[in-house]
Amino acid sequence: MTRASTRKPGEATGDDQAAVPRRLLEHATKLFAKKGFDRTSVQEIVEAAGVTKGAMYHYFGSKDDLLYEIYARVLREQTRQLESVASSGAPLRERLAAAASDVVVSSIDNLDDNTIFLQSMHQLSPDKQKAVRAERRKYHERFRGLVEEGQASGEFRTDKPADVVVDFFFGSVHHLGSWYRRSGSLTARQIGDHYADLLLDALRPPG
Amino acid sequence: MTRASTRKPGEATGDDQAAVPRRLLEHATKLFAKKGFDRTSVQEIVEAAGVTKGAMYHYFGSKDDLLYEIYARVLREQTRQLESVASSGAPLRERLAAAASDVVVSSIDNLDDNTIFLQSMHQLSPDKQKAVRAERRKYHERFRGLVEEGQASGEFRTDKPADVVVDFFFGSVHHLGSWYRRSGSLTARQIGDHYADLLLDALRPPG
DNA sequence: GTCGGCATACCGACCGGTCGGTGTCCAAAG
DNA sequence: CTTTGGACACCGACCGGTCGGTATGCCGAC
User: How many Å lie between the alpha carbon of A65 and the closest alpha carbon of chain B?
Assistant: First the structure.
C-alpha cells in the first residue's frame, strides 16, 4: 500500500478507490456484455477491477453470484421506477406512455445490463433463474395491469390480448441493445417516445 | 458397427440413418437452444447424434462452423420467404401484413433456431459474425423498403422513422422464444396475425 | 492401393474454485 | 501508552476437471 489512509472499509475515497464489490460488479458488467458470461474468466474480471481472485470470492460466493447481483440491481431499479409512474394520479394514457418511455430510456442508459439480461439469463443456476423470472413476471404483470385498465374503460382496443401486447412491447425493449448505437442521431428519450407512441397507437380501438 | 449395410455415404436409409451432417446440425441446434453454445460440449453433440468427434471434425471445421451453418440455414429460408411475399402483386398493406405474420410463424415453427440466434450470435468468430450481420441487414432493409413504400404513398404515418419501426417490430419477433410456449392457447398463426395487426395499426396515420 | 469416412486415444490449455497465509485496524487489557 | 488478540479484507499459488481440437489407425468401396 503506497497510500495510507484512515478510510473505513467499504468507503470510497476516490475514483479508483471505490468499494471493491462495486468495482467488481462494474467491470464484470462490461465484460459480460462484451464477451458473454461464459467467455469471461474470473481472472479477467479481477484483473480489470485491479484486485485478485481472493478478493472476489471474499465478497461473492461464485461467478454466478456476480451475474445474479447485476440482474437484481437492474430489476430493483426498473420495478421501483414503474411503480412510481404507474401509481401517480395522471390519466391512464399518460401513465402508460411515461412507463413505456421510461423503461426504454433506462434500458438505453444501461445498455450493458440490458445486453446481459437477454444473453446470459439461462446461464444462471436454476434457482436463481427462478428468482429472476418471478421478479420479472411481477414487473410485466404490473405493466399489463395498465393495459387492462384501458381496455376495461374502453380507451384501448379489446381484440388483442393484453399479455400479447405486453410481450410484443417488451420484446422490442429487450432488443434495443442489438441495434441502438449512441452514435446514432436519436437520443434515448426520442426513441422512448417513439416506442411509447407506437404502443399507444397500436392500442387505439380499430377505426 | 453392429449393422452392416450397403448404403452410400451421405444417403439416408431410415430415421436415425439420416446423413451424418444433417443429424449433427439437428442435435446441435436442440442442445445449443437448451443449454447455450458455450455450455454444450462437442462431446455431447456427437453423442446425441450417435457419432464420434472424428466424424464431426470430418464434416465441420470447428464448433463455430456448426453454429454458423445453423444461422446460415435460417437466414436463407427467411430471406427466401420474405422475397417471395414482398414481390407479389398484392396491395402493399397485404404484402406487409403477410411478411410480418409469416416471419412470426416461421420463428415459432423453429423456436430453437430463433433462441440460438439471439443468445449465441456474439459467440461466433468475428468474420463469421460479420457475414451474419450483413445478411441480416439485407433482410431488414428489404422489410424496411415495404414500410417506406407505404410512407411515400401516404398509407402510413411519416412521423416515425421507418428503421425505428422495423427494429421495434423485429425486437418483438426475436423475443418470441423467451415467452411463447406451444402449450399456450394461441396458435403460431394467431400470434402472427396479432403481431401483424399491431404493426399495421401502429403505422396508421395519427388521427 | 488408395481414398473417403469415420473411430479412438490423447494432448495441452484453461478455468472455477479453494485454502493457507498476510497485513491492517481496532478494542480491551495491563 | 503499550501490548495483545482477533476480526476483517485481501492475496496468489494451486488443484481437479473439462473442453476443443488433433494424430493416427481401421475398413469397406472402387
Answer: 18
Closest CA to A177 of B162, B183, B121: B121
> pLDDT averaged over chain A?
90
Tell me which residue has cell 484486485. A51
Distance CA B156, CA B197 (A): 13
Q: Is B189 on the interface with A (CB under 8 A)?
A: no
For strand C, is any atom closer than 7 Å to the CB of B5? no
Running DSSP on this structure, what letter comes out for residue B207? -
Candidates B68, B163, B81; CA nearest to B117 is B68
Nearest to B202 by CA among A164, A170, A169, A46: A169
Q: What is the pTM of this model?
A: 0.89
Mean pLDDT of B27-56: 95
pLDDT tens for chain A, residues 1 to 207: 333 333 334 333 333 556 889 999 999 999 999 999 999 999 999 999 999 999 999 999 999 999 999 999 989 999 999 999 999 999 999 999 999 999 999 999 999 998 998 889 889 998 899 999 999 999 999 999 999 999 999 999 999 999 999 999 999 999 999 899 888 899 999 999 999 999 999 999 987
User: What is the number of alpha carbons within 13 Å of residue B69 lying toward its C-beta?
Assistant: 17
Phi first, then psi, for residue A104 (nearest 5°) are: -70, -45
Cβ of residue A173 closer than 8 Å to a chain B Cβ: yes
Determine the Cα–Cα distance for residues B161 and A90; give it in Å rounded to an integer. 29
Query: Cβ neighbours of residue A8 under 8 Å, at least 6 residues apart?
Result: none
Instruction: Measure CA of the first residue to CA of the last residue in chain B; give whole Å.
Output: 71
CA dihedral A33, A37, A41, A45 (to 10 degrees): 40
